[in-house]
Structures are given as C-alpha cells and as structure tokens.
Amino acid sequence: MNSDVIDFASLAPAYPEMLLAIGAVVLLMLGVTINKERSLLVSYGAVLLLLVVGALVMFAPADGVLFNGVFVADSFARYMKVLVLGGSAFSLLLALPRAEENGTHKFEYAVLVLLATLGMMMMVSANDLMSLYVGLELQSLSLYVLAAIKRDDSKATEAGLKYFVLGALSSGMLLYGASLVYGFTGHTNLQEIVLAVAEEGRSIGLIFGLVFLLAGVAFKISAVPFHMWTPDVYEGAPTPVTAFFATAPKVAAMTLMVRLTMDTFQGITQDWQQIVIFLSIASMVLAAFAAIGQKSIKRLIAYSSIGHVGFALVGLSSGTQVGVEGVAIYMAIYVAMTIGLFACILALRSDGSYVENISDFAGVAQKRPFVAAVMAVVMFSLIGMPPLAGFFAKWHAFLAAIDAQLYVLAVIGVLASAVSAFYYLRIVKVMYFDEPTREFEAVPMELNVIMAVSGFFVVTYYFTIGAPLASFAHVAAGSLF
C-alpha cells in the first residue's frame, strides 16, 4: 500500500462503526442547526441510520483484525452487533410517541443513543484491553446522561447520579483488573494474552486481575452482587430510557464477558468457571425472591433482568461452544421479549401519566384487550413456558449446563424459574381478574406495531425463526473456537 494513500478497502470490517460515528456527528450538527421543535427529524434519522448500519453488518460481512490488533470483526461480533443495533433502534421507536412527557423529545437523546451504540459495537469488537475500555466508557458516559435526560424530574436526576457514581466504581475495578493482567502477562492485546497464559500458565496475580476484570463487566450486565444500581436506575429513568438500558447494553456487556472467558482466558477455564457459576446462581436466586415483594413495575422488571442475566450465564458456565450458542440465542430472545414488555407498559397511560405500580394494571384486559394479551404472552414467555420463545431460550442454556455435567446449576435454574412464575403470573392475574380502576388513553400506532411484532415473535418462534436463529448462533459461536 502506498504510504500517501489510505486503503479504505482494508477498513471494510470497521465500516459499520465508521458509518455510525459519521452519522451521529451529522445528526448532532443537524439537531443544533434546525428548529428545536423539529428534533423528531433527528430521532427518525437515528432509527434509519441504525437500520442501515444493521443491514451493512448483515449483508456486507467482512472479517479481519484492524488497527494493530485492537479491533476484531468475526461471526460472533456480527451476530451480537445485529442484536445491539436492533435493541437500540426499537428503543428509539418506543421513545417517539409522547416524547415530550418522557423527556426524550430533545435531539440530544437520539444522538446519545447512537454514541452509546457506537461504544457497544466497539466493545463487541474489542481485541485489546485498551479498546475494550474505550468502548465501555463511550457507552457508559452516554448512558449516565440518558438516565438523567429528564432534568426537571428529581427521580431521573437521582437515577443518573447513582448510575454515575457506581459506574465509576466499576470502571475503576475493571481498570485495576486490566492493569494486573497487563502486569503479569506483559500484553494488553487479547490474543497475545492467550499465548502468554498458554506459555506461562496461571499465577495468583493473573487470577486477581481476572476477578477484577469480570467484576467490572458483571456490573454492566447487572449480575449479583454488582446489581445494586439496577432497581433504582430502572425506576428513576424515563421508561423509554429504561427499555434501552434493559436491552442493547446488556447484549454488549454479555458479549464482552463471553469473549474474555471463552477466548482470552480459555487456558484457565476452571478459574473463571467458578466465578461465572457464582454470578449465575446469585443472580437467579436473588432476583427470584427479591422481585416478589415489588410494587413498582419497573423495579420488578429490573429484578427480572437480573434473573435473566443469571439464566444466560448458566450457558456460559459450561465453557463449551454449545454454551456460547445458548448465550447467543438467549440474548436474542431476551431482547425481543423486553422490547415487547416495555411497549405494553408505554401503551398504558392514564390521567396524563404512565402506570407505575402493578396494581395500576387492574382491568387492562377489559379496557385494552390487545395490550393485555401481548403482555400476558410475554409474561408466560419470561417464565419459560412452552412453546413460547422464552422456553427455548432457557432450554438451550440448561442443555449446555447438563452437557457439561453442571447438574446442580441446572436444577437451581429450574427452581428459580418456578419461583419467578409467582410474580409474572401476579401481573396476569391483576390484568384479567381485578376490576378496572381507571380509564386508559388511546394507544399510539407505533406501540401497537411493536407489540404485534414482539408478540408474533414470542408465540411463533419455534415455527418461524427458531431454526435460522440457532443456525446463526452456531456459526457465531464457532468463530470463537
């Protein structure tokens, strides 16, 4: 290559990130220059940009390692990027109706979502501890602002502050772990660390570094005992922002967890396996029991998301390719169920405000039968009842654990699912058997469409997308082995 000419063709694996970065800057400048009331244009532009980038990832695949080994594009990264982009796009669509009441009518909201998504895509493709941290911080800083985007709301401000303080603590832990790993291996590149571990074996310093690294990532996926921020932030942030927090960032952080354990530290599987098994059991058990006493729907969803992270980690605990496939399938189904759930919550609005308590869902089946039907289907799927999508998500995760002879872990997972059925079914009971106490406003068309798509996916998963998704997950997981 001529030193005076940039070979853009060689940058093909990074085209999606480059397009997203340029698009975010263009939309930012557009938002600054146009009339504030027309900021909706920026939101639609952001959704279109995410869809275009998603199409680029799917239909113009390019694998390779770029920028002196700090960025990697492979099948696993592509699969997870599609989930991240899909979660972000649907979260933006959820925020479009009644944006003024949510505090998401500012053009900055869409731009921050794009920048957070760019950080997530960098995390997914990180092949170096430094690029990993840069991607993580780009995501985190955007999320801190998004949590407090509704500045005149004291709950949202408190949520943003809590998230920022605890997030800074987790970033410090992750950085400390990264410095220990670098100190004991002499490398920051993940592939170089693989070779160093293979040559030198495990050391106590490396194990400490691994523990701190995984603790930092566990904070981002809300795994117990690093979950303390989740209920407060989910409850305080505007509901569309909570929907975003519960989907795309979880996928990106889970990808990071998989890449660090299954790829970088595969040579010391027995060490990280104990950590992941503990995170999995603690998350499933605590979430199952802590959610029972919740009265706020968003706090209940927070504990639900903690529990589902625990179920996904059951698959990772196996340390096998089947386990990684289970995680990939689980995250796809989890994103679809969560988007549908938040669409149902945003569809229910009464007396100028959204329903916040579980008791507010009384009589929804009589007043808004379609919303109640979709929400009931999603609740049954979250429990893991066949033949809904949630059943197959847990099936793949538990199957990987059983194949790896982690029978106790699988049994704990099944029991935690049984306990969680109580609080999911309580919502269905309130919707269908309690007398209505309020009138609900008309449901915006966008939310009806999202609910219909999510409900269709959950109900027909086995007959429609189940086999292709499993095939894609198999190819994605295979690229790590």
Number of helices: 21
Q: What is the residue-averaged pLDDT?
A: 89
Q: Major sheet, described briefly?
A: 2 strands, antiparallel
The run of helices and strands is HHEEHHHHHHHHHHHHHEEHHHHHH
How many strands? 4
Give the strand content: under 5%
Helix content: over 70%
* Shape, per Cα inertia axes: globular
Oligomer classification: single chain
User: Which structural class do you get from the secondary structure elements?
Assistant: mainly alpha
Quote the distance from N terminus to C terminus.
32 Å
Rg (C-alpha, Å): 22 Å
The low-confidence runs, each spanning 5 or more residues with pLDDT under 50, are none
Strand order of the largest sheet: 1-2
Subcellular location: Cell membrane; Endomembrane system; Membrane
Transmembrane segments: 12-34, 41-59, 79-97, 109-126, 161-184, 204-229, 272-293, 300-321, 327-348, 369-392, 404-425, 445-463
Catalytic activity: a quinone + NADH + 5 H(+)(in) = a quinol + NAD(+) + 4 H(+)(out)
Domain NADH:quinone oxidoreductase/Mrp antiporter transmembrane: 126-419
Description:
The protein is an all-alpha fold and 481 residues long. Helices cover 73% and strands 2% of the residues. It contains 21 helices and four strands. It has a two-stranded antiparallel sheet. A two-stranded antiparallel sheet has the order 3-4. A hairpin with a 4-residue loop joins strand 1 and strand 2. Helix 1 packs antiparallel against helix 2, helix 5 runs antiparallel to helix 6 and helix 14 packs parallel to helix 18. The chain is globular, with a radius of gyration of 22 Å. The two termini are 32 Å apart. The mean pLDDT is 89. Keywords: Cell membrane, Membrane, NAD, Oxidoreductase, Quinone, Translocase, Transmembrane, Transmembrane helix, Transport, Ubiquinone. This is NADH-quinone oxidoreductase subunit N. It catalyses: a quinone + NADH + 5 H(+)(in) = a quinol + NAD(+) + 4 H(+)(out). It is a multi-pass membrane protein. It comes from Devosia litorisediminis.
